[in-house]
Amino acid sequence: MRPETRDLLALSVIAAAMLLPGCRADPPDALGTLEYDRITLPAPAAERIAAVEVREGQRVAAGDVLMVLERAGAEAQTAAAAAEADRRREVLSELQAGARSEAIAGASASLAAAEARARDARAYRARVEPLGRRQLVAAAEVDRARAAAGTADAEVRAARARLDELRNGSRPEQVAQGRAALRAAEAQAQAQAVLLDKLRVVAPRAGRIDSLPYKLGDQAPPGAPLVVLLVGDSPHARVYVPEPLRLQVDVGTPAKVHVHGREDAYRGVVRMIRNDPGFTPYYALTGDDAARLSYLAEVALEGAADLPAGVPVRVEFMRRDDGD
């Protein structure tokens, strides 16, 4: 028998054996790419970018300064908030201290003057009323005397109430309102100080700069991404699991990750899989079309710290009792 014929016969036997009932099928797999966890650092305020300290692809440590925004406007607002807090603090001190002795003395003098005017008005009324009864003066003059006496008595009561108010000091409710206003002003000043500190954009974790959407001199709107940071000790495989394989895949399912360009597979484990399909909703499909559903999953890799993001991968999902 010719060697070529013998080799073809051997391959046919192997293929037939793989198709026999009871033989183990190929492990299920899914396709995707390598990804890192991403952290987006937003613009804290609409300030112009004054300095860019990093470049895309650069590795940074936690706490490294990535960008610096202009601080003049925020510094002015911080100073104004601190001044308002100081004013509220002094207002509270004034409420707690009560009236000055000079104010109490002035109120006492005003009361004495009002009492003197009241005595004079009452004396005049006492002189005029008998004359009015004898019709020696006009009735209108008697009425004016009585009104003047009543007005003078009212002024005495108002002056005495003002003096009592100064002597008793501020009400507890006023002091409580002063304390609340001071806390609000201090909180506003603290918020402005935090905003001022955020104008120095720093790395919250060690990682690699993935993207710098804005450049030196740009003025990004609040909340716009200034820096996109890739973090984590190693990447994970982000794959889409076809609907026929969904029942075989769950969190904790072991897997082998084949990275394009690497011969050896990496060991991994499923750390997340979505419950909802990522593409066409189930209610829009019928029959065999349901196989087009895909579920997003993430597979954590072991010993893959040197791999870059974006590389295509193929993931084989193993049974929990499978070996290597």
From TrEMBL:
Keywords: Coiled coil. It comes from Luteimonas vadosa. Its main location: other. Residues 92-189 form the YbhG-like alpha-helical hairpin domain. This is HlyD family efflux transporter periplasmic adaptor subunit. It is found in: Cell envelope. SUPFAM superfamilies: HlyD-like secretion proteins, Single hybrid motif. Transmembrane segments: none annotated.
